[in-house]
Design brief:
The protein is an alpha+beta fold. 27% of the residues lie in helices and 24% in strands. The chain is built from eight helices and 15 strands. It is globular and about 50 Å long.
Length: 302
């Protein structure tokens, strides 16, 4: 959801007033376990809206602006704490009575493709990938519009026009780029908006030709980014959120090893520990406000 976040920030309200704390100076070396303190007045809560993934539930987000002298450092710190980027905003779920959304990432160097994933790589061996600047292009927008009409016609992004799409791609204060994938005759097959961080690549949004479903292009783009991260000496590929009970997100659990962010930090996901991982944060389910404050308090630098 791109533009609803921008609207909610304009309509939102500060979680707390006062209690201001100094942020780590931009450019200053930061240890892995050092907290980056962000004044709580810089965090906002979005109004409750129907959850697009779990029927009968409402979602809320805690949102902050990626600003300051070093937005890349802030972005990386927030990513370590489970935030995602949308334009110049970083957001994280803060839902009342629910903590189903889990931030997940793939340790790129440890990843081992299964048989299905190896077939997907082979099936798309004819594709050419090109990393290009994060600029809106009519050809990309046309594919984006077709993808939404076919796959997410009832979603919050379905009505985006070209100016909306341009803002999604270009309004970024951090290092970001597009990766386009083309078949042998030059036709555009898929596009991914990707952020570059010190420890990995973060897939912001991807879309593909709905007529090429047999290629499994969504999964192939993840596999390509894993290989790209390894080639660049980066540790992780960030996939956003995974919900165990959402069929739309089930594919993310097929990438192993997979790390899940819990209240005790990033932990490797194992099938026999699924319930334990999902219940680590059970104590925070009763208070959405507590969850939002925890989001601000738990920002750890990359």
């Amino acid at each position: 959801m791109v533009f609803p976040l921008r609207l909610c920030l304009a309509m939102g309200y500060s979680l707390m007033k006062g209690n201001q704390q100094k942020m780590v100076r931009p450019g200053r070396p930061v240890k892995l376990n050092q907290r980056v303190q962000i004044p709580l007045r810089h965090f906002f809560a979005t109004p409750p809206t129907p959850c697009p993934y779990l029927d009968g539930r409402m979602e809320r987000k805690v949102v902050t602006l990626l600003a300051g002298e070093d937005p890349d450092q802030l972005h990386e710190a927030l990513s370590q704490a489970g935030f995602r980027r949308s334009q110049d905003l970083a957001y994280r779920p803060a839902c009342d009575g629910c903590n189903a959304c889990k931030a997940v990432r793939i340790p790129a160097r440890s990843f081992q493709a299964n048989r299905t994933q190896r077939r997907t790589i082979a099936r798309n061996s004819d594709l050419t990938a090109l990393e290009i600047s994060a600029q809106a292009r009519p050809e990309h927008f046309h594919l984006f519009h077709r993808y939404l009409a076919e796959r997410h016609a009832d979603g919050g992004m379905a009505d985006m026009d070209y100016s909306d799409y341009r803002a999604m791609v270009e309004d970024s204060p951090v290092r970001t780029h597009l990766v386009e994938f083309r078949v042998s005759d030059g036709a555009l097959a898929a596009v991914c908006l990707t952020d570059r961080m010190r420890d990995g690549l973060s897939l912001v949004y991807s879309f593909f030709d709905p007529d090429l479903q047999h290629r499994s292009l969504g999964q192939y783009m993840i596999l390509w980014h894993i290989q790209r991260a390894v080639g660049r000496g980066l540790d992780y590929v960030y996939l956003g959120y995974w919900i165990a009970d959402s069929q739309k997100m089930s594919y993310k659990a097929n990438f192993r090893p997979l790390e899940v962010l819990t209240s005790r930090g990033w932990r490797t996901f194992r099938d026999d520990e699924t319930d334990d991982l999902l219940n680590l944060d059970a104590g925070s389910r009763d208070s959405g406000r507590h969850t939002m404050k925890a989001a601000a308090d738990s920002v750890v630098s990359a």
